[in-house]
Amino acid sequence: MREYLQTWYDAWLKQHRDTNLIYAKHGDDVRLSQVHFVRDYLSGLVWSDVKYDDRATEPERSDCKVTAMVIGEHRSKSVRLPVFAFDRPDLGIQIILRDNYYNWNISVIAERPIACDLRGFPTDFSSAKERAEYQPRGYWGYCFFEGFPTVLMFGPHAIDQRKFSLWVNGDYEAYAFVRTLMLGVRQ
Which whole number is the average pLDDT over 21-35? Predict the structure, then answer.
């Protein structure tokens, strides 16, 4: 699966317009707050060096610029949710992420090792048991990878600085991580 975020979201909104799922509502409106967060905030960090008018337009929507792609789906709280991907081949980085209402799982693929200061984020195993039980392409810590393609499930940054995964708790930490990462990549 590989679909433009806004195109995926338009179809999701149409399908769920009469939903009673409380996690898919905001007041009386049906919406996914994580889509708004990725589209409106995280994409601003990822694309901050490209003028809005210079970004590609989604083929299906002439009024929308490409912000992110949806590359998978998963369910949490009975709601169908996206797995997002930011692709910046010009910077040599791809960021894959999903939110399941508990935490964000993020995978990073970079051409160069990510050497920026990631202190405060889970970049290593939290216990010896976790390290001993880790199998490549398997879950670890709080990285459960719901909806991720298997080839995008990595171990921590301490094992490989070019391909790694981690989890963060909530939108604020996701924003801080993506901001830190993008500043480091642009240096």
Answer: 83
